[in-house]
Specification:
The chain folds into two domains: 6-62; 71-172. Helices cover 77% and strands 0% of the residues. The protein contains six helices and no strands.
């Protein structure tokens, strides 16, 4: 009797065959062993187990994660186009340099924006302080005191809430 070919075994594979026993295979795919002698069944099971093992090894062997292709993939590319790995790595380096340069620009812009905000806030606070002192000197003590107090509370609040936000940002990173 002729053993089933690899193609017929391969077409009958199922995810359940990954933990193989002959009884499980006979229940799952009975047509694989129809008409076979016990010795031939054992040989067919061995072929099937080898095939499944090879497939599992292949899956593990080809797994790769990262920003660049795996060394094996780069080697395969070089068979088609000899300068491909250098071009791929060069492009990755250019992109990485570009990203780092953009991050520097963004950080500089954020620092500048923060500095401008501090200067504007200081100017507004100073203006309110001058207005409060002016009102007090012009015999509007209640209005001057209220504006001066609001100015002082606003300044303290900005610094306190700013420190709280900084702490949250640091903890989240």
């Amino acid at each position: 009797m002729q053993l089933p070919s690899n193609e017929s075994i391969n077409s009958s594979l199922d995810a359940r065959l990954l933990s193989i026993s002959q009884e499980e295979i006979e229940r799952t795919v009975p047509e694989l062993f129809e008409g076979l002698e016990p010795a031939d069944k054992k040989l067919a099971l061995g072929k099937l187990q080898s095939l499944v093992s090879a497939m599992m090894i292949k899956v593990e062997e080809n797994y790769h994660a990262g920003p660049l292709p795996s060394p094996r993939t780069l080697k395969d590319y070089s068979k088609v186009l000899p300068e491909a790995p250098e071009r791929i790595i060069g492009q990755f380096e250019k992109q990485s340099d570009h990203r780092m340069e953009m991050e520097k620009i963004v950080v500089k812009a954020q620092v500048g924006q923060s500095r401008t905000g501090q200067i504007m806030g200081y100017s507004v606070a100073l203006l309110f302080l001058v207005a409060a002192v002016g009102l007090i000197l012009l015999d509007h003590a209640v209005a001057g005191t209220v504006i001066g107090s609001i100015d002082l509370v606003a300044l303290v609040s900005v610094f306190v809430f700013g420190k709280i936000d900084q702490g949250r940002d640091l903890r989240s990173k």
